[in-house]
Amino acid sequence: MLPRLASLFRQISIELETAAERRADSERQRYTLESRRRAIHSAADIAANYMAGGMPFDQALEAASRATGLEADTIRIVAKRMPSRIQRAERNRKIMQMVARGYTDKQIAEHVGLKSPKSVNRIIRLERERAA
Question: Per the CB 3.0–4.6 Å rule, which of 10, 28, 30, 43 could disulfide with 68?
Fold first, then answer.
């Protein structure tokens, strides 16, 4: 009876060790994936900042790629899933281009789909502050 219990104890011990190793591997893999996800999202943020400065989308992706060492196509996938920030940067760039061409705040608001010319004025002020 005692040898059978000892054998059973060894078997349970081996199974517990194996389960612990699998869990540790899973945790390491999850940490690696989470780190990569953060790096890619950070690169997409960098691209959005370049775009906010007036750089076109593809050039911003290439610049973010050079800055982070990640592939531009990888950044593109995430950036397209972050539409609000990317779209806002594109919209603001378009607004600043229209300001440079002499459009009124009302005309700009109508063109980019904003409800109020005051919103355009606020965006212009913020963009100029950011550029300064």
Answer: 43
